[in-house]
Design a protein that fits this description.
A six-stranded mixed sheet has the order 1-6-5-3-4-2, sandwiched between helices. It has a single domain, classed as Glutaredoxin. By secondary structure, it is of the alpha+beta class.
Length: 215
């Protein structure tokens, strides 16, 4: 569970209120499924290299996840996404950072992009999304990655060199979530089905099966 101290700084209290609001919206909307138009889906799947993917490159069902490393629902559903990938070799997940929780989330996304350039995305993603501590600041993000064995100087140098490109990726993701009408993280597209909010493993497998049968 994502928790904060009751004696937190006022800005952190505000952040908790925002987090709870977004989580509530996401959870309440979890069963509201909409269809993504073929044109919109083609644009979303025309991924730049900085939009990492997990699973089979030859998958017959693609799941797109719009997420934030500080989102408690995103953290909660991560084990189910991993279970889905492990049990279904015909699924891939495209990870689209949507850092709605502020500067630390943006920095975490940049760091994950840097890791992806080195072929280490899965390791960085796991460290950040499975972190037991809050990622309230850049230093929190750096601590988690350093503990996972990443060279922070190398990450800093890469971000300095490629920040414009990484920023463009986040801008694109924001544009997509706005067009989709998403109001909070996570947002999932399974096949052409848009589901705002978190899903459990049974729901994920059911929607994957529906997407596969619709092909």
């Amino acid at each position: 569970m994502y928790t904060r101290s009751s004696t937190a700084h006022p800005m952190r209290v505000f952040g908790l209120i925002l987090l709870m609001t977004i989580t509530a919206v996401s959870s309440a909307a979890a069963q509201t499924i909409h269809q993504v138009t073929p044109a919109a889906l083609a644009s979303i799947l025309a991924e730049p290299w900085a939009t990492p993917a997990s699973g089979s490159p030859n998958a017959d069902v693609t799941l797109v996840e719009y997420f934030d490393y500080n989102c408690p629902v995103c953290r909660r559903i991560e084990p189910d996404l991993l279970k889905l990938l492990a049990n279904d070799p015909r699924v891939r997940v495209i990870h689209k950072d949507w850092p709605v929780f502020g500067e630390a989330s943006v920095y975490a996304a940049y760091c994950s992009f840097s890791a992806a350039r080195e072929g280490q995305y899965a390791k960085a993603h796991a460290a950040l999304i499975e972190s037991k501590q809050d990622l309230d600041s850049r230093e929190d993000v750096r601590t988690v990655l350093q503990q996972a064995g990443f060279d922070l100087k190398r990450i800093d140098a890469d971000i300095s060199l490629h920040q414009k490109e990484y920023s463009a990726t986040l801008t694109r993701n924001l544009r997509e979530t706005t067009a989709l009408g998403l109001r909070g993280t996570p947002g999932l597209i399974i096949g052409n089905q848009l589901v705002p909010g978190g899903l459990d493993y049974a729901q994920l497998t059911r929607l994957v099966a529906q997407a596969r049968n619709a092909r």
